[in-house]
Amino acid sequence: MHTLDLTIIICFLLAMAGYGIWQGQSNRTNDDYFLGGRNLPWIVAMFSIVATETSVLTFVSVPGIAFRGDWTFLQLALGYIVGRILVSAILLPIYFREGVDSIYEVIGRRFGHNMQKLASMVFLVTRIFADGVRFLATAVVVEVVTGWPLGVSVLVIGIVTLVYTLAGGIRTIVWIDSVQFILYLFGGIITIAFIASNLPVGFPEALANLAHEQKLKVIDFGWNIFSEPWTFFSAFIGGILLSLGSHGVDYMLVQRVLGCRNLSAARKAMIGSGVFVFLQFAVFLLAGSLIYLFIGDMQVEKDREFASFIVNHLPVGLKGLLLAGVLSAAMSTLSSSINSLASSTVTDLLGGNTTLNRSKLISFGWAAVLIGIALVFDENDTTIIEIGFTIASYTYGGLLGLFLLSKSNKQFHAISLAMGLLSSLGTVWILAYAGFAWTWFIIASVLVNLLVVWTVEGIFAGTGGKR
């Protein structure tokens, strides 16, 4: 790597760490540390949501999807927008009316503290595995850029991210996320402009060539909807449900809108993030398609197409700027995960009875866990982005079912609720074994959750069981 590129990257990393340490001086309470004093601007919260959910996966996998295939991935993003509208209409009013620090407090107030703890533990398990995979994706980028072993890359990223996360809390994280979002979106646009200016044909002809090769196809009305995730009905419905689960009952993403000033601001941040995610995916799919034209159908290791292009083809200076944006953006998910895991632990498992210093110590512990997961996880023949989606889909349905039940006026036995939640998790394992696409996991687990709860309640009613 050229000295100028390396200098740019180091300056970016030092700036992030320095800003976190400086910003951390304003944290006085856990509310400051975990919710930013409930005074976060909605635009900043919106950009933070986008950066947190897609930064690593976008840079590492999405251009590769277009490089190897087409644009049918956008069908999922269409569903994302609809899913966030539903979250804004159904779930956000509950959270703001209840004035919760953690969304799982809604479960606790409705069904008891033990169910709150169970819901939180499901969230914690989901996040450590899903974000451990995302952390691995981050290290993949660093490995390509530096040539360091994957394990060394994991440790370097983890340590730098840990500094600004522990020091600054959520307020630091969302502001850095916003800068990162602008940086990596700009990086995608730079890539498009650079390739378009260096192709032997004009941009319109390049698009025509891609269309001729069926690489710009967005809609796939294939009928193999239950086993193939990228047909329209599977991807669109899966996108709705995945967004409803991730942005409705996953505390890591909901945490950002809880920090907004009011419900109206939270809704703007939530729905706006869906629109920006769609635009972002379109930018990086176009970048991946143009990379395909630029370097040809050569063999590039899976999930490394975009990073390899940056390293091997961009000029000095521009390469360093883009890589700095990639690396800093890649850390946004890790920092968000550390803070949300600690927040849920403090609020849901410890009842909020802890000091700010102890909260930081808990954050440090979760960071160590995520680093460990990334160190032991192995890549396989599935793209990293699909692995992340699949892991999340295993548990979102069960949690979503609990929140839907909380809107009912009926009183439920704790045993019924626990059996419903656990049955929904088992259902996903069966569907995965049977070859169903991950896009159907959430709706199946929600339906099984509700069915089991109401069935067990019926058994209790028939036997005169007591709560």
Radius of gyration, whole Å:
22 Å
H and E string = HHHHHHHHHHHHHHHHHHH
Low-confidence stretches: none
**Spatial gap, N to C terminus:** 65 Å
* Major beta sheet summary: none
The computed structural class is mainly alpha
Strand portion: under 5%
- Secondary structure tally, helices: 19
What is the overall silhouette? globular
Question: What is the average per-residue confidence, as pLDDT, rounded to a whole number?
Answer: 85
Helicity, as a percent range: over 70%
Q: Would you report the number of β strands?
A: 0
Provide an overview of this structure:
The chain has 467 residues and is mostly helical. It contains 19 helices and no strands. The longest helix has 49 residues, at 150-198. The mean pLDDT is 85.
What are the key terms here?
467 residues, mainly alpha, 78% helix
Question: What is the fold's blueprint, element by element?
Answer:
Elements: H1 3-23, H2 30-35, H3 42-60, H4 62-68, H5 74-90, H6 92-98, H7 104-111, H8 113-146, H9 150-198, H10 203-212, H11 232-246, H12 251-258, H13 263-295, H14 305-313, H15 318-349, H16 356-376, H17 384-406, H18 414-434, H19 441-463
